[in-house]
Structure formats: structure tokens, C-alpha cells
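Two proteins follow. First one:
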Amino acid sequence: MGVLYAKATYLYPLFETQQSRFFPVENSFSQLLYRTPLKKVSTGTQWYYETTLVAGYRQHLERKFPAMTDSGIRILTPINNMSREKNSARSIQKKKPDGINILHGYRKFLERFPDITGPLTISEQHILETLLPTAAAIQRDDVRLHGQALIEKTRHYCIEKIDHLQIE
């Protein structure tokens, strides 16, 4: 679960002092979010759950900003006043990449992945994190591999697997 407030708020130090192995910090944020009972709200054709607190936030935002209705659910109007069709959930869903496109993008990242001994960007660090489980499996089979050589072998292995999946 994500957290409700920005990282630098007063809640983090408070919640972090209360956390334990059996009560992680996310529990404190969940308790904050769900401190009032959930209510099932129906819009006619759809339904969703909402707390009194979240309903208050939603109503406040709807008063502050012009709202529009799409499929019975209140949505904030974007600042750039795009047409209703462009804002519909259907047009947003069409833009979601499918699995093959995601793999293709990931493969491009792997192709140009830099040497790990130099500084890495945040994106490169995220890609490296995705390689680590596979690198551990590869290293289990060949304990002599370490560092850059291990990551290179893992990178090539992953590219080969993606290419194999796209052929089928």
C-alpha cells in the first residue's frame, strides 16, 4: 500500500517509532486512512467503498473544482479542458501498453544498460533491481561469476528470453 502523506510530514517519525516486525509502518497509515467505517456507495450501475473521511475529501475537492460525471462517478475536470471523450476511462485504457510492448521497452533498457561500476540513474537502478533475482539464480549455477560479469551474463540471458517469447 502507498502512503497518504508526503515523505517529509510529521507522521513518518511518529509512525516509524511505533513500527515493529509485527506492525509495519504501513499499518499505521492504513489505520489512519480507515479510521472510520467503510460504506458501500452505489451510483446506479456501479458501486465502490468509501469512508466518511474520504467522502469529505472528495466533496471538498468537488466544491473547489468544477466536476464532470463519467459513468456515474464524479471526476475532476482537468486543467487543460480536454474534451470529455479524451478524458473517458475507455480512451485511457486504450493507451495502456500490452505485455509485448512492455517487454520490448524493457529489452531496449537492457540493450543500453551501462557498466554497474559507474554511477547509475534512478531508472538504471530500477532495471538493475529487476535483474538481481535472475543474477542470483545464474550465480548459483556458476559461483565464479561476480559483479559486472554476472550482470552482463544476466542481461544477455534476459534479452535472449524476451526474444524467444516474442517469436512464439
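Second one, unrelated to the first:
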Amino acid sequence: MSHLSLHKFHLFALKLALTGLAISLPFSVGYAASNSISFDASSLAISTPLSPAPIEPLGNMQMSIPLSVSAITLGNRPVRIDQIQLEVDLCDPNLQILAVSLVDPASSARHLSDRSDISDKSSLIHLSSGTASGGRATVLKLTSKSGESLEGTFHFQILVRAPREWRGSAFHLQATAYGHSKKIAYQPMMVAGYLSGDTSAQQSAMQLVNAELKLRESVDVHSRAIARSTAPTVLHQFVNRLELMDPRIPEDWLTRTIFSKVDPYRDPELKRLPVDVRVAVLDYQAAQRAFTELISSR
């Protein structure tokens, strides 16, 4: 056997050995308590122009964007949510956030306590907010002041200045839960916003929402296979540097996919996804492009 053939044989043997070790190692994905907390959000946001219309620069209008987010703990040993942070990016440089309010805070806080002696349940929640990205994004922080877990559905209204020809946008929402000053859950979500009365934009937004739902369902079905391919072990990093194994799927692949930051055709890491999931990714991105093209037309 030549020296070159012997060298290839040794590399092949090493690859088999390390692959076996990598498969046998335990893995964990995400946060320890993330499986005990479920986030959800309204997938459609029907934006409504204010009436009577406030005085605005020529070509602009003010509109209200509704947003509902829910959080609930699951399992036999649920964790307590002390704070929820919501990062909302309207993903349109033509939009400017003017104000954010918590709608009916007493209703949102009703789940926090059943005590009849508390007349002002809105005092159980503290809302703080600020803008980012030149005014197109906002960061909302909900804090429980009662000591009870911050669970339930929270309704917001975002007041926005927009061009009169605005038709819609895919909003990016990132929800993070904290307990005992630690990050315990994270969930990226997409909300399709469109102008009230725009039937074409509504239909395209619904198609985008359905494509995301099918993508998440496919991820759930193949969750165990995906988890094995996202395990960030030191051993795998070492083997990957030797180019003896294919790169693992990054843990944030779903976030980057939903927020249009991946190319499944060129990203070698995403080629490790199950075939059904890759198809769902392509369908989702096709719906994204169709929605973007439609709302860009005037």
C-alpha cells in the first residue's frame, strides 16, 4: 500500500471512530427550561389608518398596528416568568414608530391574580419601551410586580407613521422570557402586517402565515433528527476543523430562516436538514418573496 493510500486509510478510520464518538455523546439544544414555556403571537396584523386623520406631512398617514402575544408555562414543574422582553422590528425603513401602548392592561393582568381585593390589576404589570433602528423597531419589557408568573395574552397597539401608499410588511418578533434574572426561553416569530381593506395583500399575507405554520410543523415532526445535528460538541468542532465531518446545523437556523437570513441552496449546513424540512423552507421563502413583491407594488 502506497504512503498516500495509507494516509487516506488512516483518515477514514479516524473519521469513523470520531463519528461514532460524536453520535454517542449527549446533546442539548436551546435553554434548559425552554420546553416548559410556550410563546405565541397573532400571525396577522391588520393595520388601520387613524380617523379622523391627524395632520401629517404630505404623503404620510398615521395608522395603528395591533399585536397580541401570549406566554404560558407547561409541564409538571413549570417555571416562573418574571419578565418578558419583546423585540419588534417592522422591517420597513419607511415606517416610524410614534408610540406603543398596552391595551386593556387590567384584562391582560387578570390571569395574574384571582384575588377580589385587588381592584386595579393593571398595577400588576409594568411596561417599558423604547425605539431602535431609526424608529422602525421597538423593545418592550413586561415585568410582573406581583411576584406571580407573567402568563397570559397581552394586547398592544403600535402607533406608526407610514406612507399613504403603504400596503404591508413582514414584522419580525423575538420574545424572550426571564426568570430569576436568567434567560429561560426564546421564540422568534413572524407577523404579516397589511393595510385594512387591501384584499390582495391580505391573501398574500395569509399564504405567508400558512407557509410558516407548515415549516414549524415539519420542524416539530423532525425535531429529534434536527436536535442531533445541532449539538455543539467540542469533539464535533475539532472534527469539523479537520474536514472529516459535514458541518452541523447552527442552533439559530430557524430564526435566520424566518428572518430571511439564509440561502438553503448555498448554505452547506442547512443541507443536513431532513428533506421534508428543506422543502418547507423553500416553500416558506417562496411565500416570502411573493408577499414582498406584492407589497412593493403601488
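SUMMARY FIELD: The beta strands are 37-41, 44-49, 60-73, 83-89, 96-102, 125-132, 137-144, 152-163, 168-179, 182-195. Helices lie at 3-24, 105-109, 199-221, 223-230, 234-241, 253-258, 275-296.
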